[in-house]
Amino acid sequence: MNEVNQLVLSSTIDYSTDLVCAELKKRGLNYLRVNRDLFPEYEITYTLQDNTLRIKLGGSWYLLTLESVRSVYFRAPVFLRTTGKFFGIEEQLKRSQWSSFIRNLIVFDRASWINHPVATYQAENKLYQLKIAQRIGIAVPETYVGNTLPQSIVPDRIYIVKSLDTALFYNDGKEMFTYSTMVSGEELLHSEIKAAPIFIQEYLSKKIDFRVTVVGDSIFAVSITRNGKALVGDWRMSDKDNLEYIPIELPQTVKKQIFELMRCLNLSFGGIDLALVGNTYYFIEVNPTGEWGWLATCAGIPIDKAIVDFMVAGGRNIYG
After folding, report:
1. Could you say which architecture CATH assigns to the domain 121-138+204-307?
2. Predicted TM-score of the model (pTM)
């Protein structure tokens, strides 16, 4: 029976997790990667009497106890996003019950989590993030959420329209995903939005995009440009391989605000989007399960090493 010290919860197609596991293996650590999409292939039993979790995969048995598991890398959203795709009864059963099983792994309350599911659930809400950032004193764009337009919408102004949650839909078997979209006030005033709430923000013109990855007490910030020029609209709509990621040093005041934001959200890890307009850094959002693998590959930023450092050191145990 192999004892596990570091538990990794992810999926088979997650590149960022691949990097973390490669670093864990390189250091010779007793880790176990459990992929959500392969749960039915494992043999899993949690015994409450002695609080032990036994998992069989790949012909080997692994033992996880409250004492042995020091850290958990949780690479998954808490919300189930299956809108619009038809699933049979068996598939619905598997998805709902395995999702519940993952949430119940918070029984490992002595371990340090990146991030704890409770914190992830809370921080996945955009409006709540912005409220906390605003309270801390970080600049945030003018923001509206709802299924009707505020009276302040001006026809000749440009706005950014987003989904309130990740908008992943299926139509005729095809997957569809929506990004932030630039829309004129005129278009908004002639749009029908009663069916569902939308997220509207002021358009920040002449901005420079920054991606800030936080791991514990470490901050990795890069500016995002194309051919040395700032991007218009949502940079995520561009091919990541054709963009430039230049490591930058954020002002100490901004760093302090970011750490305070993470503390208030109880997050050990976050992928934060900032926009610089003039001398003002605007907070756009923080993703508690944000992507970062391309930054390690394209810009050589050692986020994987920082995550493993955090796991080995024990990091912060927020809910234990």
Report:
1. 2-Layer Sandwich (3.30)
2. 0.88
